[in-house]
Sequence to fold (224 residues):
Amino acid sequence: NAGVMQNPRHLVRRRGQEARLRCSPMKGHSHVYWYRQLPEEGLKFMVYLQKENIIDESGMPKERFSAEFPKEGPSILRIQQVVRGDSAAYFCASSPQVRGSGNTIYFGEGSWLTVV
Amino acid sequence: KNEVEQSPQNLTAQEGEFITINCSYSVGISALHWLQQHPGGGIVSLFMLSSGKKKHGRLIATINIQEKHSSLHITASHPRDSAVYICAVEGNTDKLIFGTGTRLQVFP
Fold:
């Protein structure tokens, strides 16, 4: 049973380009969370998705950022027109049920985005 | 004030020492997680607690719901325990709120 798979592990983009980060949850998991870790800062919630639905995007910047979790395929976090401040580690996590029921959450290895 | 506070921020120890990392939170929670993050690496879930105490190998985690406090203990610490340890809480919503982490270095 493969864990949460994220790719790419490392991504370098020039300012103004687009970044696409992918996350395949653990088998059987239908809930995906994206978290961001800025340099020297703690992790912060970005968005919570279920298949084909965005449940909570209260942590997403209002512009340039979007996320999806289609019926087929991985969840994708998309950052348009990247700026240097977007440089961070982006972690995906998945769980089989709603978090409030107390199921363990599993994290991916993270995607490190560097904007030059 | 952050909703989740950890102490200390940085911790150094000699191999073999007993280590305690503390976490206090100010919100109602359904569960608390202790996570481990190695430099440049991913995040591993160590424990999920909603009450009492859990033990896994040399690691022990406790939680006091009334006092809104949790501790992570490492017995007989080893250099390979060097990492950032992160406390995170689940409230009534479906997202985790994280502490800023405790950076642990264990020297041989």
In short: Residues 7 and 22 of chain B are 5 Å apart (CA to CA). Chain B touches chain A at residues 30-31, 33, 35, 40-45, 48, 50, 86, 88, 90, 92-101 (CB under 8 Å). DSSP finds no helices and eleven strands in chain B.
